[in-house]
Write a structure and sequence with these properties.
129 residues
C-alpha cells in the first residue's frame, strides 16, 4: 500500500512538471520571438515570412490554452475520483480511463503543436537573419 502512495506521488509530480514545462516553453518561445523582432529585425514591415511568425504565435497561444483545458480536466477528474473512490474497483478503473483519454490526447497535442510552433519560429528566424 505504501508503494502505491509513492507511485501516485511520483505520477502527480511528473504531471505537474509536464504542465509547467509546456507552459514555460510556449511562453518562452513567444517571448523569444518578440525579442527577436525587437532586437534583430530592424524593419518589421520588410521582414520575410511574417505569416510564419504569426502562425507560430497562434500555435504557442493554442498550446497555452490546451494546457489550461488539460489542467481543468485533471482537476475535474480528481474531484470525480475523490467522490467515487468507494465504487467497485473494476467500474472505478473503467471510469478513470474515460478521464485519462482526453487528458492524454490534449497532452500529446500540446507536445506536437509546440514542436511545430518551434520549427515554424526557427524558419521565420532563419529567413530574417
Amino acid at each position: 500500500m505504501e508503494n502505491d502512495n509513492f507511485n501516485d506521488h511520483i505520477a502527480k509530480y511528473s504531471n505537474e512538471q509536464f504542465d509547467k514545462n509546456v507552459l514555460f516553453i510556449a511562453s518562452g518561445s513567444l517571448g523569444i520571438s518578440f525579442a527577436f523582432i525587437k532586437d534583430v529585425v530592424n524593419d518589421f514591415e520588410n521582414a520575410v515570412s511574417k505569416n510564419a511568425l504569426i502562425t507560430s504565435w497562434a500555435i504557442f497561444a493554442s498550446v497555452i490554452f490546451i494546457s489550461l483545458i488539460s489542467q481543468f480536466i485533471v482537476a475535474r477528474a480528481c474531484d470525480w475520483s475523490y467522490k467515487n473512490q468507494n465504487l467497485d474497483t473494476n467500474i472505478y478503473n473503467c471510469k478513470v480511463l474515460l478521464w485519462n483519454i482526453p487528458i492524454r490526447i490534449l497532452n500529446f497535442t500540446s507536445i506536437l503543436a509546440l514542436f511545430v510552433g518551434v520549427l515554424i519560429l526557427i524558419y521565420f528566424i532563419k529567413q530574417n537573419i
